[in-house]
Specification:
The complex is a heterodimer of chains A (294) and B (390). With 294 residues, chain A is an all-alpha fold. Chain A has a domain at 16-140 and 147-223. In chain A, 73% of the residues lie in helices and 3% in strands. Chain A has helices spanning 3-33, 41-63, 67-88, 98-120, 147-169, 171-181, 183-188, 193-215, 225-240, 245-265, 270-284, and strands at 136-139, 143-146. Chain A has a two-stranded antiparallel sheet with strand order 1-2. In chain A, strand 1 and strand 2 form a beta hairpin. Chain A starts with a helix and ends in a 10-residue tail after the last helix. Chain B folds into 2 domains: 31-147 and 282-351, Rossmann fold (3-Layer(aba) Sandwich), CATH 3.40.50; 150-276, Response regulator (Rossmann fold). Chain B has 13 helices and 14 strands. In chain B, a hairpin with a 2-residue loop joins strand 13 and strand 14. The chains are: A mainly alpha (294), B alpha/beta (390). At the A-B interface, helix 1, strand 1, strand 2 and helix 10 of A face helix 2, strand 8, helix 7, helix 8 and helix 10 of B.
Chain lengths: 294, 390
C-alpha cells in the first residue's frame, strides 16, 4: 500500500467510524444512559431509512420537495413515535429485569417488521442523494469521493458535539444523569423524572431515525436492515463504556479503522476482527473504555 | 337419557366425519406440494415470485398436474440455515408431502437436499444456485429449474476473454455462492487468455465496500467481475458509481446484480452488462404469452424468479404425467424429465445428467431500467456437475 492509498483508507476508516457513531448514538442514549436494553433500536434505524424513501414523494407533493424538509418531517414523526412508545411500553420497563426488556423489545422488532411489510412491501429500495450534495471530489486518478459521505461525517460530528455538550455541560443533562443513577432521589427533589425520561427516550428514537434517514442514500433499504446494524451498535456502546458518549465516539472510530484495514490486509478474518477487538478491550477494561462516572 | 343424547351426538359427528372420506375415496387423493420458500426477510419478494410463477402454471393446467389436484403446504424458511432441517422436516414428516419445492437461499437448499436425498422425497429447487445441489448432493429425486452459480460466472468469463480483456479483479461476499460464481468466471476467463489479478471478498452480509473500492482503484484492472444480489447489489452498484470507478474500470457481474434491483439502483446501474439465463426483451411468443398471463394474474411484471417457479411446476407436470400421478415411481419420473425439453419462457432447455438446466446464457445490458437482451453469451451451457455420482 503506497502513501496515497494509505491516506485514502484512513479517510474511509474515519468516515465509516463516524457513520457507526451516528447509528449507535441513539442507543448510547437509551441503553447507555437510561439503562434500558433496547433491541428495537435497529428497527428505529430501519423506520428512518424507509421514511426517507416513503416520505420524499409525499413531501414533494405537499411542500414542493426538499431533502431538508423530508428530514424535518421524519424527525417530528420520530419524536411522536418515541414519545408514544415510551408512554405505552417502555415506561413500565425501567424497574424490570433485563430479560423482560429483551423480550418486549424483541417483540417490537417483529411488530415493526410486519408493519413495514404491510405498509411498504418487501422490495429493496434506494434513495438518491439531494442534488446539492451529489457531487464528487477527485481522489487519485481513477477514483472519486462522494460529497454526500463527507456531509454524513459532518452531521455525525455536529451530533456528537451537541450530545456531549447537553449531557456534560447543561442542567438538563445533569438531571438525566442523576435520574439514571437514582430515580427516586431525583423525583423527590421535585424533578418530573417521568416526563424527562419520556423526552430523552423520544430523543433517542429521533436520533436513530435521523441516522436511518441520513444513511439511506449511501445504503440500500431492505427488510431486516435494522438487525444488521443492531449488533454493531451494541459493540460500539459496550466497547465505549456504557453511558459514555466520548467512549462511543472513540469506539466507533476504532471499529472503523479495524474494519477498513482488516478488509484490505486480512480479508479472510475481516468478519471477526471487530469482535476480536471487543474481546481484547473488555479483557483489558471490563467496563469498556470510558465507564460513565469513573 | 344423558347417555342416549351422547350417543346421538357421537353418531351425528361420525356421520359428518365420514362423509368427506367417502367422497374422497372415489377420486385420487390430492397431490401434496410442500412450498418451502422465504416469505419474510431479505428474500421475501423472491419467495413470493416463485410461488406466483408456480401457481400460474398450475392454474393454466386447470388446477391439476399429472391428473391430480394440488394441495399446498407452506413453510416460511426465513432464509435461515440453522432452522432449515427442522423446517423441511415439518413438510416431510408432519405434512407428509409428495414433493418439495424450494428454496432461494443456498444454505437452506443444501439442508433440503440432504433431507430429500435421505428420505427419497421428490425435490425441485426453483432458485438456489449452490453448485453442490446438482454436484456432490445430486440424487435421482432432486432437480433444479434455475441455474448453478457456476453458469452465469462462466458465461461472463467467456464473453470478456473473447473481447480481449486482459486483467480482472473479482469481488464478492465471502460465502459459497460468491466463490462458486467467481470460480466459474475465472475458469472461462483464464482459459480464454485473461488473468484474474486478485479476488476480493467482504464478510457476508456486510455492505461496507469503501475499503475494497479503494483497493480496486489502486490495482487498476481492465475489468471487475462481481457477484452480489438483493440489497447488497443495490449498495455495491451505487457505491461503485459514486466512487467514480464505473467510468474508469468497467463493472460486470452475474445477472443477480441488476435483477429486481434496478429501481433502487437508479442511474448508477445504467449500461451495466451482466449474464443470466433470462432477460427482458427476449420477444419470443412463449415469453410474451407468459409475461402477459403473469401480469394479468398478479398485476406485477414477472422476473427471473417467477420464471423459475413456473418451470418448476412444468417439470413436476412432465414427471407426473409420465407416471400418471403416481409419485412412488421415482425412476420413471426421473427418466421422463431427463428426456424432456422444457418449454420455458427463457427458451427451451433440457436437464443435464445431474439434473441442472442446460440452457442459453444471455448477455444483458441495463437500458432504461430493464435488463435488455444483447446476445446469447453461451449457447446451451451445461454445468459440469462436478462430484455428482448417480
Amino acid at each position: 500500500m503506497d502513501l496515497a492509498g494509505f491516506l485514502i483508507q484512513c479517510l474511509n476508516s474515519l468516515q465509516y467510524g463516524l457513520l457507526l457513531f451516528l447509528v449507535a448514538s441513539g442507543l448510547t442514549l437509551i441503553f447507555g444512559i437510561m439503562g434500558v436494553i433496547n433491541l428495537a433500536h435497529g428497527s428505529f434505524y430501519m423506520i428512518g431509512a424507509y421514511m426517507a424513501y416513503a416520505l420524499a414523494p409525499i413531501v414533494a407533493a405537499t411542500f414542493g420537495g426538499g431533502f431538508v424538509s423530508t428530514l424535518l418531517l421524519g424527525l417530528v414523526l420520530a419524536v411522536v413515535l418515541g414519545y408514544l412508545l415510551e408512554w405505552a411500553f417502555f415506561s413500565f420497563l425501567y424497574e424490570r429485569e433485563h430479560l423482560q426488556q429483551v423480550l418486549m423489545t424483541y417483540g417490537l422488532i417483529l411488530v415493526f417488521e410486519e408493519l413495514r411489510s404491510i405498509l411498504v412491501g418487501d422490495d429493496v429500495h434506494g434513495v438518491a442523494a439531494p442534488d446539492w450534495l451529489s457531487g464528487t471530489i477527485p481522489l487519485g486518478d481513477v477514483m472519486t469521493y462522494p460529497v454526500y459521505r463527507l456531509f454524513i461525517s459532518a452531521v455525525c460530528l455536529a451530533l456528537a458535539v451537541a450530545m456531549y455538550f447537553v449531557f456534560s455541560r447543561t442542567r438538563l443533562g445533569m438531571m438525566i444523569r442523576a435520574g439514571s443513577t437514582n430515580r427516586e432521589m431525583v423525583q423527590s427533589l421535585g424533578v418530573d423524572i417521568k416526563f424527562l425520561y419520556r423526552v430523552v427516550f423520544a430523543a433517542g428514537v429521533a436520533i436513530a431515525v435521523l441516522a436511518g434517514m441520513i444513511a439511506a442514500p449511501v445504503s440500500s433499504i431492505y427488510p431486516g436492515m435494522g438487525n444488521q446494524v443492531l449488533i454493531f451498535c451494541f459493540v460500539v456502546v459496550v466497547i465505549g463504556g456504557i453511558g459514555s458518549i466520548r467512549g462511543a465516539m472513540l469506539a466507533a472510530l476504532l471499529i472503523g479503522v479495524v474494519d477498513t484495514f482488516g478488509k484490505v490486509l486480512f480479508p479472510e478474518a475481516a468478519g471477526v476482527l471487530v469482535y476480536v477487538l471487543m474481546a481484547l478491550v473488555l479483557l483489558w477494561k471490563p467496563d469498556g473504555l470510558f465507564r460513565a462516572g469513573s | 337419557m344423558r347417555t342416549h343424547r351422547r350417543f346421538l351426538i357421537a353418531a351425528a359427528l361420525s356421520a359428518v366425519a365420514l362423509a368427506p372420506t367417502l367422497a374422497q375415496a372415489q377420486a385420487a387423493p390430492k397431490l401434496k406440494v410442500g412450498l418451502m420458500l422465504p416469505y419474510t426477510g431479505t428474500y421475501a419478494a423472491l419467495g413470493n415470485a416463485i410461488e406466483n410463477g408456480f401457481k400460474l402454471y398450475v392454474e393454466e393446467k386447470g388446477g391439476k398436474l399429472g391428473g391430480r389436484e394440488i394441495e399446498y403446504f407452506k413453510v416460511d424458511d426465513e432464509s435461515a440455515p440453522p432452522k432449515a432441517t427442522d423446517n423441511v422436516n415439518k413438510l416431510v414428516k408432519r405434512d407428509d408431502v409428495d414433493v418439495l419445492i424450494g428454496t432461494v437461499h443456498s444454505g437452506v437448499a443444501m439442508a433440503m437436499a440432504k433431507v430429500a436425498k435421505d428420505t427419497g422425497t421428490l425435490m425441485i429447487d426453483p432458485n438456489a444456485g449452490a453448485d453442490a445441489v446438482t454436484g456432490p448432493m445430486c440424487a435421482p429425486n432432486i432437480f433444479r429449474s434455475s441455474f448453478s452459480n457456476w453458469q452465469p460466472g462462466y458465461a461472463m468469463g467467456e464473453v470478456l476473454a473473447k473481447r480481449g480483456v486482459k486483467t480482472a479483479v473479482t469481488i464478492t461476499w465471502n460465502y459459497s455462492a460468491g466463490a462458486e460464481s467467481v470460480n466459474g468466471f475465472k475458469e472461462a476467463f483464464e482459459k480464454g487468455g485473461g488473468k484474474v489479478l486478485k479476488d476480493l471478498t467482504v464478510p457476508f452480509p456486510s455492505q461496507e465496500f469503501q475499503a475494497l473500492l479503494t483497493e480496486i482503484a489502486s490495482i487498476k484492472p481492465d475489468a471487475v467481475y462481481t457477484f452480489f444480489a438483493g440489497a447488497g447489489a443495490v449498495k455495491f452498484v451505487k457505491d461503485y458509481a459514486a466512487a467514480g470507478l464505473k467510468k474508469t474500470v468497467p463493472l460486470y457481474g452475474a445477472g443477480f446484480l441488476t435483477d429486481g434491483t434496478l429501481d433502487a439502483q437508479g442511474d448508477a446501474a445504467d449500461g451495466l452488462e451482466t449474464t443470466l439465463h433470462y432477460a427482458d426483451g427476449l420477444n419470443t411468443a412463449r415469453d410474451n404469452a407468459f409475461r402477459l398471463a403473469y401480469a394479468k394474474a398478479y398485476k406485477l411484471q414477472p422476473d427471473v424468479y417467477a420464471v423459475q417457479g413456473y418451470d418448476a411446476a412444468q417439470m413436476l407436470n412432465i414427471g407426473l404425467t409420465a407416471v400418471k400421478g403416481d409419485t412412488s415411481k421415482k425412476a420413471e419420473f426421473a427418466a421422463a424429465l431427463r428426456k424432456a425439453k422444457i418449454d420455458s419462457p427463457r427458451g427451451t432447455f433440457a436437464l443435464s445428467k445431474s439434473h441442472n438446466p442446460v440452457q442459453d446464457m444471455y448477455l444483458r445490458k441495463v437500458v432504461g431500467h430493464e435488463n435488455k437482451m444483447v446476445s446469447i453469451a453461451v449457447k446451451g451451457l451445461a454445468d459440469p456437475g462436478r462430484g455428482c455420482k448417480m
